[in-house]
Amino acid sequence: MPSANVKALSENTREKLKGAVDQLEPFLNHYALSQLLGEDKDEEGSLFYKGLLSDLRQLLVYSEVAAEKLGVLLRRPNFDSEYGERVLYEVYHHCVNAFFYPKNECYSEDGRYAYTGQDAIRFRYKPVREARNIVLSVSKIFEELRDDLSYYESDYMTQRRMQGQK
């Protein structure tokens, strides 16, 4: 991929990741498990919110680290296209996959709804409005990142293997 394209994609990706961080961090700083559970302290709800908060914290850390790596890359006087491609690969495989395939499976994407204009995210348990809103809000960012970085799903590593690199 040409260096100019990698640089533009790196800038765009960094801005999107910063947008996700700007939404996730206040949510995670404001809401605790007890607030999300409210009066309804059933076992299923407790497990759901513990898993959801854990997945969102992990997504926040991945996004912050990737945004910082992209920031360092973009601040260098000479843009390192090869390192940029590596970081974009990591963004796809850590951030995008962390969102769409959460460890605790509190929500999942149902592709059948992608073309209907409805939200494609389906929750395992009916969450409170704030939890639902944060997941749906960042889902739009990670959908865009997935579309932008789809090349890095498999083609990037195939290219590296053909060049004899890991």
CATH-defined fold name: I/LWEQ domain
Q: Strand portion, in percent?
A: under 5%
Low-pLDDT stretches are none
User: How many β-strands, per DSSP?
Assistant: 2
Q: Any idea what the radius of gyration is? A: 18 Å
Q: What is the level-2 CATH architecture name?
A: Up-down Bundle
Widest beta sheet: strand line-up:
1-2
The span between the termini is 18 Å
Number of alpha- plus pi-helical segments: 6
Q: What about the largest sheet?
A: 2 strands, antiparallel
Structural class: mainly alpha
Shape: elongated
Helix content: over 70%
Structurally, how many domains make up the residues?
1
- CATH structural class: Mainly Alpha
Helix and strand sequence:
HHHHEEHH
Mean pLDDT: 88
Description:
The protein has one domain (3-162): I/LWEQ domain. The protein is built from 6 helices and 2 strands. The chain has helices at 3-30, 33-37, 43-75, 81-100, 129-148, 151-162; strands at 107-109, 121-123. Helix 1 runs antiparallel to helix 5. The chain is elongated, with a radius of gyration of 18 Å.
What distinguishing features does this structure have?
two-stranded antiparallel ribbon, I/LWEQ domain, elongated, 166 residues
Gist of the model:
With 166 residues, this protein is mainly α.
Secondary-structure map:
Elements: H1 3-30, H2 33-37, H3 43-75, H4 81-100, E1 107-109, E2 121-123, H5 129-148, H6 151-162
Antiparallel strand pairs: 1-2
Helix pairs in contact: 1-3, 1-4, 1-5, 3-4, 4-5, 4-6
